[in-house]
Amino acid sequence: MFILRLKIVGRLVISVALLMMVSSCSSEQTNRSQVTTIPQNSSNTQQQKRIALVIGNANYQVGKLDTPLNDATDMEAALKELGFEVILLKDSSKRQMDDALDQFSTRINQGYVGLFYYAGHGVQVEGENYLIPVNAQIKAEKDVEYESIALGKILGRMESAGNRINLVILDACRDNPFRKFSRSSSRGLTTPVQTASGTLIVFATAPGKVASDGIGRNGLFTSYLLKYIKTPNLDVDLMLRQVRSNVAKDTKNYQVPWNSSSLTGEFAFNQKPETITSKPSPSTTFSTPQPQPSPSPQLTAKAFYDSGNSKRESGDNQGAIADYNQAIKLNPNFAEAYYSRGNSKFNLKDYQGAMQDANKAIELDPNSSEAYLNRGRVYIGLNDYQKAMEANNQAIKLNPKNANAYSNRGLSKYNLGDNQGAISDYNQAIKLNPDLVQAYNNRGTSRNELKDYQGAIADYNQAIKLNPDLVQAYNNRGIAKNDLKDYQGAIADYEQAIKLKPDYVDAYNNRGAIKNNNLKDYQGAITDYNQAIKLKSDYVDAYNNRGLAKSNLKDDKGAIADYNQAIKLKPDYANAYYGRGLSYKNLNDNQNAINDFRQAAKLYQQQNKMQDYQDAINRLKELGVSN
Questions:
Q1: Is the pTM value of this prediction over 0.70?
Q2: Which residues contact residue 404 at a Cβ distance below 8 angstroms, ignoring those fewer than 6 apart?
Q3: Selection from 111, 115, 182 nearest residue 148 by Cα
Q4: What is the Cα–Cα distance from 498 to 334, expressed in whole angstroms?
Q5: 433-449 core/surface letters (b: 16 or more CB in 10 A; e: else)
Q6: DSSP string covering 225-245, please?
Q7: Which DSSP category does 45 fall into?
């Protein structure tokens, strides 16, 4: 089957310029990666940042469970006692689980110990493990992928955070209540693909086996986990042996907990410093410390502010916010602390909190160009590009040499469709700061929109020269190479983006588009789209594009299922209606094809995509419909 034209979305990724404050002076940040390495076997484990996402699902429409809510509640209490910040969900929907995972992913970062705990139903389908929300509507095997959360997605998010230790604990091996709908699903869960160094994955029972829901307050596995997790200085591997031994004994070896570990050092949940006591020798003399003058509140506030900047630059935005809070508590008129705290809140996608801090900084210092810059940055995060333009105009008025303000104003113009105006601002930003990597990357996107592909590639090359780890630049350069029909060069760039950031969904989607549209490698394209969807279950473009690849393989029923999901996620997605119409036409279901082509034409016209509109009209004419 031949499709006239594949409607594939190649997404350009834009990076927003970030102003970093050091002491009381501004410095223009080039968005280079800054990583603080913490040894795996550090003895001060208890002092490291720890954050956990704990989920307990019990009240399913099919296969209700007795203990997961208690399991999650008790695990939350234990982890908090052990120094973890805990995000807790009970009886959660898929949307709630996705949102919590997004929140969890943004809060764990380099140096953290990240823990994911889940109690509830889990199933394996075609070698992938899925965790089931309580509102899942699973009537057939194909529904599992759309209605559940893939374990691989969770592992990918945790791995990409760069934590020194990631712990995944699954009391989710209950028997599959949906197996009657399934051909390839099996009992229990399956062995996961091991992720990066520093990861421990724990199952309540061995792969392919079923765990007990328990007869008491907790599931059997979780009850022993709670019993031993607080043991002082007990290494996690030894703790799991004790849990495994007790569970196996209680079930006469029917249930044997299983784990896969790539930890390279020791970790104890309850790390206690060793206490050594000794008596002073007779010759020991002690001097009485002389009282020192207390530092002024302003100096102390400055120290917290500097510490917050250091933490933010290393990616610890939560720690930075805590320091900025102290600085503001000690000096309530510290404008720089407000807009720097706003930067960290922005990085955590707390746009409302970031806006409040930017506004407070402007109230305290109306002549601060940086405060207006940050206000504009928040408006960009909120997709209010006109207000972002106004804020950056004021930042430039107050400081005509503020390169970041020109760069961000250019980004606003780009999003408002003014690519020539955007390029003019990027030019000025680069003139003021020749090392401003965001300006090169973003100017490349505007040049690409204007079909200046060679100019775009030159900008991406410079961005990569300044920051070899800038994944967006590799992805965007791949798009420009694709437009120049350099397909192998484009794939090489997408692969480099994936190497740098294994959960970078746009690169999988774009690589799949080349395989699908240009190389006719439809199965390879589907593999890429599968990975994109695994990492981001609501990635509408990947569903649409996978539908196209399935249609090229003459699997029009499978294609229609993907188009349905794309339309469910985005009801005004004209490309999905058009593609589904083609699949219905291939199946000789002309009435449904006519309905879809009509809807596609209507949406294309509303979106002023007149060539696509004409394509849909031509399809209707082929089916004997005049309008």
A1: no
A2: 17, 18, 19, 28, 29, 373, 429, 436
A3: 182
A4: 41
A5: beebbbbbbbbbbbbbe
A6: HHHHTTSBT-BHHHHHHHHHH
A7: G
Q: In 365-402, where does DSSP find H-type helix?
A: 369-381, 385-398
Q: Are 505 and 498 in contact (CB under 8 A)?
A: no
The first and second tokens of residue 86, run together, are: 């805990």
Give the residue extent of every domain in the chain: 39-261, 298-534
Burial 307-317 (b: 16+ CB within 10 A, else e): bbbebbbbbbb
Neighbours of 179 (CB within 10 A): 13
265 token code pair: 């050092």
| Residue among 168, 167, 166 nearest 149 (CA) | 168
Mean of pLDDT values over 144-156: 87
Q: Topology of domain 39-261, per CATH?
A: Rossmann fold (3.40.50)
pLDDT at 552: 95
The predicted structure's pLDDT at residue 163: 75
Contact criterion met (CB below 8 Å) for 619 and 597: yes
DSSP notation for 430-487? HHH-TT-HHHHHHHHHHHHHTT-HHHHHHHHHHHHHH-TT-HHHHHHHHHHHHHTT-H
The pLDDT value recorded for residue 554 is 96
Using alpha carbons, list the distances in angstroms from residue 174 to 128, 204, 301. Answer: 16, 9, 53
Homologous superfamily of 298-534 in CATH?
Answer: Tetratricopeptide repeat domain (1.25.40.10)
What is d(CA 21, CA 308) in angstroms, rounded to the nearest whole number? 10
**Cα 262 from Cα 242, distance rounded (Å):** 19
pLDDT in tens, 233-281: 888 888 998 898 888 888 887 888 888 887 777 788 988 754 333 333 3
Contact 566, 547 (CB under 8 A): yes
Average pLDDT over residues 422-430: 96
Query: In degrees rounded to 5, what are phi and psi of residue 299?
Result: -65, -40
C-alpha span between 581 and 240 (Å, rounded): 54
Where is average pLDDT lowest: 165-169, 248-252, 356-360?
A: 248-252
pLDDT per position as a tens digit, 194-239 = 555 678 899 887 665 565 555 678 888 999 999 999 998 888 888 9
Closest CA to 115 of 85, 160, 70, 91: 85
- DSSP designation for 12: P
Output the CA torsion sign for 294, 296, 300, 302: negative
Q: Sorting pLDDT into bands at 50, 70 and 90, what band is 42?
A: very low
What per-residue confidence (pLDDT) applies to 410? Answer: 95
Contact 133, 149 (CB under 8 A): yes
- Distance (Å, rounded) from C-alpha 115 to C-alpha 117? 7
